[in-house]
Amino acid sequence: METGRLEQLIEENYQNIFLLSLKMLKNREDAEDATQDIFLKVYENISSFRHEAKFTTWIYRIALNHIYYMNTQRLKMYNNQPNKHEIRTEHNEDPADVLVEKELFNALEKIIDGLSPKQKEVFIMRYYNQLPFKDIAKILKKSLGTVKSNYFFAMQKIKNELEQNQLLEFQE
Fold first, then answer.
1. Sign of the alpha-carbon dihedral angle for 116, 117, 121, 122
2. Closest Cα partner for 40 from 6, 16, 1, 70?
3. Model confidence pTM above 0.85
4. Is pLDDT at 168 greater than 70 in this prediction?
5. pLDDT digits over 77-100, tens only?
6. What pLDDT shows up at residue 116?
7. Within 10 A of 138 (CB to CB), how many other CB atoms are there?
8. Which domains does the chain have, with CATH numbers?
9. Within 10 Å of residue 39's Cβ, how many Cβ atoms?
10. CA distance 15 to 130
11. Element at 15 (helix H, strand E)
């Protein structure tokens, strides 16, 4: 693959890989390091890329493998740290609305953390990265039905937890 094309593909995928890393690692610095490491691996291993799958499928597989590796190398020390995400507010926003939004955001993050690993990775790739189920199935090497099922159960758990904590009311 020519260098210019590789650089273009990396640029097109950088933001999504960073977001995936951030959601899975829960720490901005670790996500930045992971993203750089992932793209270094992509660069070093581009000759092994077989055009049987999409480039995005290949790169997400590398990303997930690296993220899992990072998680196993750390002794879960980041799991007990407070969330480092910030909610940006406008100066004229009602502080009560900002508090409610922050509370909802923190509750959602906690619920996502409580999903099974399979549900969590499918949810993040579908909800945050907006990948099609078909691509997620290829990345995870799972059947399309399994991926859809994991997403469905993740969404059910999130909905139930939000309702249970009275943070969201669903009208049927």
1. negative
2. 6
3. no
4. no
5. 444 444 444 444 444 555 665 565
6. 92
7. 21
8. 1-82 (1.10.1740.10), 85-172 (1.10.10.10)
9. 20
10. 12
11. helix 3-25
